[in-house]
Amino acid sequence: MARGRDRSRSARRGLGAALLGLLLAGGLPAAAGAEDTVAFTIADRRITESSGLARDVANGLYWTVNDSGDGGTVYGLGDDGELRGTLNFRAQPTDVEAVAVDGSRLYVADIGDNDAVRSMVTVYFLTNPRANGLTVTYNAVDFRYEDGAHDAETLLVAPGGRLLVVTKGAKGGIYEAPQTPSRSSTNVLRRVGDAPALVTDGVVLPDGQIALLTYGSVEVLDGETYAPVSSTPIPAQPQAESLAVTLTGDGLLVGSEGRRSKVYALPLPGTAGDATPTPTAAPSASATPADSGEDPDAGAADAATPSAGRRGTLLAVGLAAVVAVVAGVVVAVVRKP
């Protein structure tokens, strides 16, 4: 992909992130007690568009990649953000957006598709990665979505090793790969759940839940049902693009694209008081008591005299709807040629 097109696309994506960030900053209140703690700064001049971050406990590293235009290069960072070395593989990815580690395997996800035109996307995997500057052999698997092309920036490795791709859009989705993908044919990604709008990275947490990064928050989903669990605001960033569990396993790291980008530390969801439970949708009026599990008379009483908590939930749902509408506008801006 040409550098000029890369710069144009990055500018559009930055504008989209800024638009959504303004909405989030002005319309959604930050949780009380949220602190902006910088874990480290990525200072190496070669890393200008850090997109994706993954911890590698065995090597004591975090792996990251540049978003587009960097070929087959992965960067290994220490827990201080300093570059420890690179790992190269002889491939020419189209748009690398995410990295993930599972045991001795490092995944590099070429899944970006800003214009939603790619007939397939590719995930590379490297065995026993080392940040020693060498060029290594690799394997690759190709995928296509069952319902047509999508832009995506998130690759997850579920317990058991199955790959999940989370699409980025106003109506994001979670797509499941076959348990053992074929390396000789194109594999089908099947939609298995819904995702928040504009997901830019994600990680499977130590307890099996899934954390997904948006431009304004970390959204936690149940690892089996993909139902929303909680939401935590993130520090203001130019373009939040990376999320990882810390090497020690007791926190999260949130990073951004850009030169000398700061990576912020957050507590693991559920370990601090700043995570807000995600409101669940109320049962429809046509639902029977057996379907909803609630006393219909009690529901009517609640509707007649809403509590302060209920009013707050309705406000949150209304704001979420506004975010979804603006997310659609952002996607249109980002995809503009």
Question: Mind sketching the topology for me?
Answer:
Elements: H1 3-27, E1 37-42, E2 50-56, E3 61-66, E4 73-77, E5 83-89, E6 98-102, E7 105-110, E8 121-127, E9 135-136, E10 139-145, E11 152-157, E12 163-167, E13 172-176, E14 187-195, E15 201-204, E16 210-213, E17 217-221, E18 228-233, E19 240-245, E20 251-256, E21 261-267, E22 276-277, H2 289-292, H3 296-304, H4 308-335
Parallel strand pairs: 5-9, 10-14
Antiparallel strand pairs: 1-21, 2-3, 3-4, 4-5, 6-7, 7-8, 8-10, 11-12, 12-13, 13-14, 15-16, 16-17, 17-18, 18-22, 19-20, 20-21
Q: Note the beta-strand portion.
A: 35-45%
Q: Give the neighbour order of strands across the main sheet.
A: 6-7-8-10-14-13-12-11
CATH architecture: 6 Propeller
Helix fraction, binned, reads: 10-25%
CATH T-level topology: Neuraminidase
Distance between the termini: 14 Å
Overall geometry: globular
SSE succession: HEEEEEEEEEEEEEEEEEEEEEEHHH
Using the CA coordinates, give the radius of gyration: 20 Å
How would you describe this structure to a colleague?
- Residues 1-34 form the signal peptide.
- The chain crosses the membrane at residues 314-334.
- Residues 266-306 are annotated as: Disordered.
- The structure is a single chain.
- The radius of gyration is 20 Å and the shape is globular.
- The longest helix has 28 residues, at 308-335.
- Helices cover 20% and strands 36% of the residues.
- Strand 15 and strand 16 (210-213) form a beta hairpin.
- It has one domain: 6 Propeller (Neuraminidase).
- Strands 6-7-8-10-14-13-12-11 form an eight-stranded mixed beta sheet, with no helix packed on it. It has a five-stranded mixed beta sheet with strand order 2-3-4-5-9, with no helix packed on it. Strands 15-16-17-18-22 form a five-stranded antiparallel beta sheet, with no helix packed on it.
- The chain is built from four helices and 22 strands.
